[in-house]
Amino acid sequence: MNDGMRIIEGVRRKDRVSIHELRKKTNVPTVNQMAAQAIITDAWKIAHNCKVAGLEDIFTQLNEAGMKTREKRTATLTLF
Fold it and tell me: Average pLDDT for residues 29-53, to the nearest whole number?
């Protein structure tokens, strides 16, 4: 990735241009930023019932009948 940014900017390693400067010029995110975005995107897809490659069999949808909360057991919640 770093060498790709150098090619885009036309600089060589021996030119000693910092990666910070190359990222600013090329507007390329860091590997950590790309990984974080991928994780957040997958989490959003899972939360919104979208398919995520490789994770289809890991998560299961719960139906409301299988979920018991204290309020449902005691029926104490009152809305005004």
Answer: 87
| CA 77 centroid distance within chain | 36
How many C-beta atoms lie closer than 10 Å to residue 14's C-beta? 6
Alpha helices per DSSP H over the chain: 2-9, 19-26, 31-47, 70-74
Cβ contact 55:46 at 8 Å: yes
Name the token pair of 68. Answer: 């018991």
Domain boundaries, given as residue ranges, for the chain: 2-74
The whole model's pTM is what?
0.56
Whole-angstrom Cα distance, residue 39 to residue 46? 11
Residue 43 C-alpha from the chain's centroid: 6
Residue 77, φ and ψ in degrees, nearest 5: -80, 125
